[in-house]
Amino acid sequence: LPATTATQAQPAAETQQTVVYYQDGEGYLVPVTRDVEKTDGIAKSTLQLMVASPENDLSAARLGLKTTVPEGTTFDLDIRDGKARVDLSREALSCMSAEEETLMVHSVAQTLCGFDSVEEVSFLFDGQQRSKLTWGTDVSGAFSGGYVNLESVETFSSAGASSVKLYFPSSSGRMLVPVTRTVFSPADISTAILELAKGPRTDSGLESPIPGKCGVKSVSVKNGVATIDFTKEFAAIAQTTDGGHQAVQAILFTAS
To answer: What does the pLDDT look like over 163-220, one tens digit per residue?
Structure first.
């Protein structure tokens, strides 16, 4: 009789959750959690998810988003002592506008700074250090994480300025967009919630998660638990199409 062999089931690859940044239709960067196969080069594998390709474009499009790095771009990555130096291949120089360049650079920097081993990111392009890209985007210095979708670059360097990260629903209501806002008061949870209640800039294309005319009476934190007391207008969130889920998520993300 002929010999028979049994097919051995291959064990599922171990994965790790990482965060990538895609762009939405308004030009904002949006963080998305992805499962990436756990390897020594997981940071580089994560960056590859943002490169335009049929598979990556489809994954982003399912969320109403777009990839940020030109098709065919590859990465050479070196991480030492909290500093990442990433060399993007020449395909990265094919952006069609200054906005595309800015989104590419900041999405790569934010994604890398999401790893505990990275505190700042510097760039090379096609093996060369550049001060500016084709459309004038400044890439001469080091980029740090945290300041995603910065509302006002001009005032951030002013004396006494700090920043808070707020989360506002996109115009479609499908996702929350992080926005870094410059403030001239302590960058604590009270300030963040008060700024969230003010809503996004009128020209931002974003929506306010807090009902109109709703105010904040108090914010307190005890044993790691925040208690936020809104005025009675807050009850109106229950009348929204999702029952207030988007508003609650915006508050939770901003508070955390």
So the answer is: 999 999 988 777 899 999 999 999 999 999 999 999 999 989 999 999 989 999 999 9
* Residue 254 DSSP class: H
Query: Does residue 42 sit in helix, strand or coil?
Result: helix
Report H helices in 87-127.
98-113
C-alpha to C-alpha distances, 206 to 177, 202, 245, nearest whole angstrom = 8, 8, 17
pLDDT at 192: 96
pLDDT band at 40 (very low <50, low <70, confident <90, very high): confident
pTM, to two decimals: 0.85
Answer yes or no: are the C-beta atoms of 74 and 93 closer than 8 Å: no
- Of 224, 220, 223, 234, the closest CA to residue 256 belongs to 224
Tokens 């084709």 locate to 134
- Cα(176)–Cα(189) distance, integer angstroms: 18
Tokens 């760039």 sit on residue: 123
- How far, rounded to the nearest angstrom, does the alpha carbon of residue 137 sit from its chain's CA centroid? 19
Per DSSP, which regions of the chain are E strands?
Answer: 15-23, 29-37, 75-80, 83-88, 120-125, 143-144, 162-169, 176-183, 216-222, 225-230
DSSP 51: B
Return d(Cα 68, Cα 100) in angstroms, integer: 7
